């Protein structure tokens, strides 16, 4: 899959831009605060309908504008598809997004500074990462996740009084059944996604790391190896007293985590800054093969400042690895020398061949 062209109108610091990138490696260079990251954000938003930088839509439009639009063409062999996205300010000051969904085969994987949170942040960052990856593999994962969150919110509301009464168990009963069924479905896909990622992660990290260290990830849940809803139901029953005291659901997929280890030790606690950044990048690159197999075509890679804080040898390894991808966008303050790469200079919201 490739992005054939993109047009931006009133997107962050881009008042208007029409750009036709190269079909393989695109190196986007320029000084800080000129729009390199904004350009990658626009490409990701065009394909996925979401920003990889922020969930606050109001941050994206150019200051003072009422409407932001993105238009582009994605290609898959002889198939061409036009994509359109619009952000519109409503009368109450809020922003609304609109646009048709991209075709199922149109996928993008983005890496940015915020991905360090996967390695050194809290459990929610790792759950979000694995849910995003699983959503690219299984079309029903995100709907299941949304349903699980709805059931969880309902259970928590019932627990809010923090008082145990004779009728609480009866009121929780129907929600416990749904929680267990949907929760184990969610957990099962997360486990499958982690297993698919681990095999490719081992290869990618070995290819990138000059020290030949080994990275492993494992899914961590209080339910152990259990796979049936009955196990989660039993866990809810055991924790009911604690739930009543705290006024919230204390066991389930919303409490799970990923263990990420470098040579057998916790990457969050013992990994250097460079190792953590390389691990986060390797996790994103490891998504490529499973997502390609699921979609039937390779996703676009959006790599924002992926070479910073890496030593020269590792940078060369990263560049060699990404050249095997189909279409790549790499931002960097200083363009590396890469055979066959198209280099573009960004300056104040304009993009020109370097």
Descriptive terms for the model:
2 domains, 354 residues, Glutathione S-transferase Yfyf (Class Pi), Chain A, domain 2, five-stranded antiparallel β-sheet, Rossmann fold, 24% strand, six-stranded mixed β-sheet, 11 helices, alpha/beta, globular
Description:
Helix content is 42%, strand content 24%. With 354 residues, the protein is of the alpha/beta class.
Read across the widest sheet, the strand sequence of neighbours is: 7-11-12-3-13-14
Query: What is the CATH class name of the largest domain?
Result: Mainly Alpha
**Largest pleated sheet:** 6 strands, mixed
Which structural class fits the helix and strand makeup? alpha/beta
Mean pLDDT: 94
CATH architecture assignment of the largest domain: Up-down Bundle
**How would you describe the shape?**
globular
Count of strand segments: 14
SSE ordering: EEEHEEEEHHHHEHHEEHHHEHEEE
CATH H-level superfamily of the largest domain: RecF/RecN/SMC, N-terminal domain
Proportion of residues in β-strands: 15-25%
* Count of domains: 2
Please give a quick description of this structure:
By secondary structure, this protein is α/β, with parallel strands linked by helices. The protein has helices at residues 36-48, 116-120, 123-137, 141-159, 168-208, 229-238, 240-246, 267-270, 273-286, 288-295, 312-322, and strands at residues 2-11, 14-19, 25-29, 67-76, 79-89, 95-98, 108-111, 215-220, 257-262, 265-266, 300-304, 328-332, 342-347, 350-353.
């Amino acid at each position: 899959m490739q992005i054939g062209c993109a047009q931006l109108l009133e997107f962050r610091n881009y008042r208007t831009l029409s750009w036709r990138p190269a079909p393989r490696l695109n190196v986007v260079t320029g000084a800080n605060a000129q729009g390199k990251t904004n350009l990658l954000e626009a490409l990701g938003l065009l394909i996925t309908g979401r920003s990889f930088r922020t969930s606050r839509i109001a941050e994206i439009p150019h200051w003072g504008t009422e409407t932001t639009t993105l238009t582009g063409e994605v290609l898959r062999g002889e198939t061409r598809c036009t994509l359109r996205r619009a952000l519109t300010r409503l009368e109450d000051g809020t922003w609304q997004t609109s646009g048709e969904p991209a075709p199922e085969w149109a996928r993008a994987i983005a890496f940015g500074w915020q991905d360090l949170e996967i390695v050194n942040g809290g459990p929610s960052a790792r759950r979000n990462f694995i849910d995003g990856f699983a959503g690219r593999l299984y079309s029903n994962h995100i709907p299941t996740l949304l349903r699980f969150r709805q059931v969880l919110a309902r259970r928590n509301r019932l627990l809010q009084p923090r008082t145990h009464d004779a009728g609480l168990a009866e009121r929780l009963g129907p929600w416990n059944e749904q929680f267990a069924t949907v929760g184990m479905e969610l957990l099962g896909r997360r486990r499958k996604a982690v297993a698919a990622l681990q095999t490719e992660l081992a290869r990618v990290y070995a290819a990138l790391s000059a020290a030949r260290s080994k990275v492993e990830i494992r899914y961590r849940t209080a339910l152990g190896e259990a796979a049936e809803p009955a196990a989660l139901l039993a866990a809810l029953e055991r924790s009911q007293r604690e739930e009543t005291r705290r006024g919230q659901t204390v066991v389930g997929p919303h409490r799970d985590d990923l263990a990420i280890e470098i040579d057998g030790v916790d990457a969050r606690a013992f990994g250097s800054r460079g190792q953590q950044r390389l691990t986060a990048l390797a996790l994103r690159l490891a998504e490529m093969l499973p997502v390609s197999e699921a979609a039937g075509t390779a996703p676009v890679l959006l790599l924002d400042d992926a070479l910073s804080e890496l030593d020269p040898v590792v940078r060369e390894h990263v560049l060699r690895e990404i050249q095997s991808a189909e279409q790549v966008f790499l931002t960097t303050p200083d363009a590396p020398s890469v055979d066959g790469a198209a280099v573009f200079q960004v300056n104040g919201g304009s993009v020109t061949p370097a």
